[in-house]
Amino acid sequence: MNPYISVVIPSYNEEKRIAKTLQRFKEYLSVQDYTYEVLVVVDGARDNTAEVAEKFSLDWTQLKVVNNKQNHGKGFVVKQGMLEAKGEYRVFTDADNSTDIKHLEKMIPKFKEGFKVVIGSRDYKDAIGAKQAIPQSGFKRLLGNMGNIFIQVVAVFGIWDTQAGFKGFSAEAAEKIFSKATIERWGFDIEVLALARKFGYKIAKIPLYWENDTESHVKLSSYLGVLRDTVKVRINLWSGKYNAK
Q: In CATH, what is the architecture of 5-243?
């Protein structure tokens, strides 16, 4: 019997943080009244991320570790995890636990209301109550705001926070959207949201209480990559690339 919830954790060089995150997930999920599975998908890590996660799996049968030897990008491993997951609903979240797993309590009611795509947002313009515990640097906020305006104009109008790492999908939506996804790195969120819109899925938004991690892997080049990928998404939509069977 398939689990009710699948949680996918894309991971790259997370040996210092993944154990704390998994412990928190295990404590929370083990007392819920639904079945679940957790998939840690390692993206060609150069440290012991996979080994640390696999140690957890020895006495936690709901945990599975997928260890890619080659680095592809966050988009690649999220897609891999979402398509390999078996849950009725599938959620991906970041390995640093910047969005606590307890936010599932806001997401699951939206699924029960009939939404097949539910995203978390750190921006109050998307969802009242969204808050960042430790604000990002002024430079990152400026880049984010400027980039978001561009993203809305080009690809996904009306979503102020496309990049938050807490998004959920029904099994149907996950398989339809991620089977068409092509972007392997940071811009994958935009493609996923654009595909959700293309396929007619109404997107629900929930507010996040987000704790910025100073050791984040996101760099200036990542922001620039997101903008480049946004243009790719628009070109793909215009060209009908996503229409192919």
A: Alpha-Beta Complex (3.90)
How far is residue 35 from each of residues 45, 129, 142, 143, 218, measured CA to CA in Å?
Answer: 29, 29, 41, 40, 33
User: Residue 26 and residue 38: Cα distance in Å, rounded?
Assistant: 9
**CA-CA distances (angstroms) from residue 49 to 41, 46, 83, 186?**
10, 8, 22, 20
pLDDT in tens, 88-110: 999 999 999 999 999 999 999 99
Domain chopping of the chain, boundaries? 5-243
- The torsion angles phi and psi of 128, rounded to 5 degrees, stand at -60, 130
Whole-model pTM over 0.70: yes
